[in-house]
Specification:
It is a single chain. The protein is α/β, with parallel strands linked by helices. The chain has a domain at 3-99 and 141-153: NAD(P)-binding Rossmann-like Domain (Rossmann fold), CATH 3.40.50. The chain has helices at 19-25, 44-56, 80-91, 105-111, 116-130, 148-157; strands at residues 3-7, 10-11, 27-30, 39-42, 68-74, 77-78, 96-99, 140-143. It is globular.
Length: 160
């Protein structure tokens, strides 16, 4: 069996999950201890291109190093404060950045409609990242190139 695993960082499109808070209350909620630490964020279209390539050129095929591989995705880095600033420009309003305390993450995810188990896993993932436990790893690195502004333009165009 040929297997390709894709390790993705944050999705640029994650702003869609908090868009109601941004358009309604004018806030950008942050599920991290700080809004000023940059992290890699890639567009799902870039992830899709990597997956499509893996499906059409599977690991273990001619020129590949083995029967399976892990592809680490890398790309542009942004702080949540920068995301809020850029999103606010698209929405025509300044967004207040609100860093949510750790104890509120799971209940906030559940209130947003996630099942409790998924909310717990997502909160644990955010906590692991904040503690520096998520390190790049993989057999090869792929750099995603879509800029956050491109993604935000598409997301906010759908609001009009």
């Amino acid at each position: 069996m040929r297997v390709t695993s894709v390790r993705s960082p944050h999705f640029q499109e994650k702003v869609e999950t908090t868009m109601a808070a941004s358009t309604g209350a004018g806030i950008h909620p942050v599920f991290a201890p700080s809004a000023d630490v940059d992290t890699t964020m890639v567009a799902t279209r870039d992830i899709g291109a990597v997956v499509a390539d893996a499906l059409t050129n599977p690991a273990g095929a001619a020129g590949s190093s083995g029967a399976s591989e892990i592809v680490h995705l890398d790309g542009p880095r942004y702080t949540e404060r920068e995301v809020a600033r850029r999103l606010g420009l698209r929405l025509g309003r300044e967004l207040e950045v609100v860093v949510l305390p750790r104890k509120t993450w799971e209940p906030t995810f559940v209130d947003a409609g996630l099942p409790p188990l998924l909310a717990a896993e997502l909160a644990a993932l955010h906590e692991a990242e904040a503690r520096g436990l998520l390190e790049p790893a993989g057999d090869r690195r792929h750099v995603c190139t879509t800029d956050l502004d491109e993604t935000l333009a598409e997301i906010t165009a759908a609001l009009v």
